[in-house]
């Protein structure tokens, strides 16, 4: 892929001003309070006794998310591990779900508890029963509920992701003071949102090639992935005011979450990324309020970023912050 965004020296200085909704904090406080009030019971963990794995224990999980609706997840624990473990809550990329538990063994191999969160409507195990409210709905999840932030898809998904942290912190195998929010692409944007919405519950954030950041810039530059859904919507509905559309999306923009997140954070970016243009990633990184933050820059990388090299960087980075498993 060619370079299609700013050169690195300009990316390191890129700090756009994007106005945030005046009621942003109130919107999210009321959203999360309503979800917690709707909880009908605690998370349920069903051990998969016939899992063909000898090094881990696997649990099929249902926890209460948006409106108390059950959200699927995998909990994967290192077999025989003693004492409360640090946990990684892993959020999934766009159009994917939790998949198979055999796809998520890295963190347990390093001694962590892992909660792999299904994405409502995107995976196979968590439906999104909320009806589409936009009279001119076109496209995928990005344009669901563009009539009102209260109806937007990402209000529900981000609420699920915060409630996942609530759930895993209550599990007896998990140290509630060592919970890490992690993900790549959409998962990275969700991890960033969770770090902002549950700052007292997240010990660190791993934000890889994050989506859901600087929506307008993404819609203008991205040539692949979900951001073009916004451009397509506005291209089809030419009489729709673009400012009104981005005013709704502003409630879910990682730039606004970044300035509210304080946990140590490790970002990553690919400089040849056609899905999440590097300027959108740097814009969120520069706004990140935590004083302890770093970014891994992969110069000749597309949306895969550092690929297998990035988890190695993450493991070392977590170890340097006392978030690794002892021994």
What does this molecule look like?
With 327 residues, this protein is an alpha/beta fold. It is 31% helix and 19% strand. The protein contains eleven helices and nine strands. The protein has a nine-stranded mixed beta sheet with strand order 1-2-3-5-4-6-7-8-9, with helices on both faces. Helix 3 (106-109) links the parallel strand 4 and strand 5 (113-117). Helix 2 crosses helix 4, helix 4 packs across helix 5 and helix 6 packs across helix 7. It is globular and about 60 Å long. The relative contact order is 0.15.
Topology:
Elements: H1 8-11, H2 24-37, E1 44-47, E2 56-64, E3 70-78, E4 85-91, H3 106-109, E5 113-117, H4 153-169, E6 174-184, H5 186-197, E7 204-208, H6 215-221, H7 227-236, H8 242-249, H9 254-258, E8 265-270, H10 278-287, E9 293-298, H11 309-319
Parallel strand pairs: 4-5, 4-6, 6-7, 7-8, 8-9
Antiparallel strand pairs: 1-2, 2-3, 3-5
Helix pairs in contact: 2-4, 4-5, 6-7
Global structural class: alpha/beta
Q: Roughly how many Å apart are the termini?
A: 42 Å
Mean model confidence by pLDDT: 95
The number of helices is 11
Low-confidence stretches: none
Report the count of strand segments.
9
**How much helical structure, as a percent, in the residues?**
25-40%
**Sheet with most strands: strand arrangement:** 1-2-3-5-4-6-7-8-9
Cα-based radius of gyration, to the nearest Å: 19 Å
Strand content: 15-25%
SSE succession: HHEEEEHEHEHEHHHHEHEH
For this entry, give a set of tags.
327 residues, alpha/beta, 9-stranded mixed sheet
């Amino acid at each position: 892929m060619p370079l299609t965004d700013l050169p690195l020296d300009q990316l390191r200085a890129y700090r756009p001003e994007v106005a945030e909704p005046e009621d942003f904090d109130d919107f999210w406080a009321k959203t999360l309070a309503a979800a917690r009030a709707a909880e009908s019971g605690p998370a349920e963990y069903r051990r998969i006794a016939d899992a063909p794995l000898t090094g881990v224990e696997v649990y099929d999980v249902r926890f209460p998310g948006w409106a108390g609706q059950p959200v699927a997840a995998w909990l994967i624990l290192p077999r025989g591990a003693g004492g409360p473990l640090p946990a990684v809550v892993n959020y999934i990329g766009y159009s994917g779900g939790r998949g198979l538990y055999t796809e998520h063994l890295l963190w347990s191999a390093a001694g962590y508890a892992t909660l792999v969160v299904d994405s409502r409507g995107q995976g196979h195990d968590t439906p999104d029963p909320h009806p589409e409210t936009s009279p001119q709905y076109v496209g995928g999840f990005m344009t669901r509920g563009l009539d009102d932030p209260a109806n937007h898809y990402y209000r529900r998904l981000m609420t699920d992701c915060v409630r996942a942290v609530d759930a895993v912190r209550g599990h007896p195998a998990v140290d509630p003071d060592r919970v890490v929010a992690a993900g790549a692409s959409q998962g990275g944007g969700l991890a960033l949102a969770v770090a902002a919405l549950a700052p007292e519950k997240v010990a660190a954030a791993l934000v890889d090639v994050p989506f859901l950041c600087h929506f307008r810039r993404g819609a203008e530059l991205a040539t692949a992935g979900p951001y073009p859904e916004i451009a397509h919507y506005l291209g089809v509905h030419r009489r729709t005011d673009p400012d009104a559309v981005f005013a709704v999306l502003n409630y879910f923009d990682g730039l606004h979450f970044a300035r509210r997140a304080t946990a140590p954070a490790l970002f990553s970016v690919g400089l040849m990324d056609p899905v999440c243009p590097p300027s959108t990633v740097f814009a969120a990184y520069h706004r990140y309020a935590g004083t302890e933050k770093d970014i891994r820059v992969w110069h000749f990388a597309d949306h895969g970023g550092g690929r297998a090299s990035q988890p190695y960087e993450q493991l070392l980075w977590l170890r340097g912050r006392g978030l690794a498993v002892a021994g």
